[in-house]
Amino acid sequence: MEKIKAYNQKLLAILGTLAVLGFFLVFLAGCYLVVADIIRNRQYGRYQAESPSIQLQDSSSTAGAAIKARQHITMQAPTLLDTAAQIYLIPVSLASIDKKQDGNDFEILDYGLSSSGRGHKYFRFNGAYCNIILYHPLTGTSRVIFDKTVHLTHFRNFKISGKQYLLMKGSSRDTDQDGQLNSSDLQSFYLYAVANQTLREVSFPGLGLEDYTLLFNSDKIILTFGVDQDRNGSLRNDPSLHKEFSITTGQTKNLVNQRQMEQIQKLVN
Questions:
Q1: Residues 216, 219, 222, 225: what is their CA dihedral angle, to the nearest 10 degrees?
Q2: Are 246 and 219 a contacting pair, CB within 8 Å?
Q3: Which among 25, 98, 152, 165 would be 20 to 30 A from 248, CA to CA?
Q4: The overall pTM is greater than 0.85
């Protein structure tokens, strides 16, 4: 009996030690994730604040021509977008002859696994870009996605229903009227279908894209727009709303209808 009791005590001590150790490891992992998230958010905020703007001043003026003359496109390293089709993606950003900077100053590149669980790799670019090029080495051809001036702050790839798409956030209109395109302008959502080479823009007057969420096992994306209440062409502490976008139909609808919005608003007034 004494031997059994001693054995049980040792077993409990071992289990208790393992439990404490496990809790400690989980605690450390949690702290690491929190700190990493804080650092990432601070870095992203810095990139957003410091990333180059696209100057839009009238080039007919001396000042405007001088500013535009200092804007030079620069190609980033190619990234393999589609292994089967052998398609490479080349981000295009801006370089300034007035300021020396390394190629990673204004971008973050992350790799991860998609929610499909099939091991398909996706990427995310955060920073400042003025276009994207898709290169096909098998045919020796390339394609420029945008045929207009645009300032991209975020883009990523994703496979939906077996098709490759680029999901992008950026601005093509100087909504705050400061003579340049940057992250301060109201931004739109862009969707590029790689297979049929079509580009869609989802935007609404007085709204600026803040974020988007891919719905699990669906072709729908929830777009979060900020409402420019003071109509200054920029967002700062403005309310937001959600819209549901269907990749298949290209249709967009309010996620929460007006009656429900008014119902919730009355609860806080």
A1: 150
A2: yes
A3: 152
A4: no
